[in-house]
Design brief:
Elements (H helix, E strand, L loop, with lengths): L8 E4 L1 H5 L13 H12 L3 E4 L5 H14 L6 E2 L1
Parallel strand pairs: 1-2, 2-3
Length: 78
């Protein structure tokens, strides 16, 4: 059987999950507890996907912050 069906994938929300809560449009800081657990899940072999209601430019900005500002270089796009 194909390993495709054996992959461990988790979708992770951006606002109030990867980041701490802040009112829009303020840029929220990284949720350090979430980062710790995301790093651990990545090390255990999970594929982590950014899943958010943001679209277009807002989605790209969130993804860019995850990769370049927060160091979540393993995070995949949905």
């Amino acid at each position: 059987m194909n390993n495709y069906f054996n992959q461990k994938i988790i979708a992770v929300d951006f606002d109030d999950t990867i980041t701490e809560h802040r009112p829009y449009p303020e840029k929220a800081p990284l949720n350090k507890t979430a980062k710790k657990y995301l790093d651990k899940l990545n090390n255990l072999g999970f594929k982590l996907v950014l899943w958010t209601a943001r679209k277009g430019k807002d989605y790209e900005e969130a993804y860019d912050r995850c990769i370049n500002e927060f160091g979540l270089t393993y995070l995949l796009k949905d």
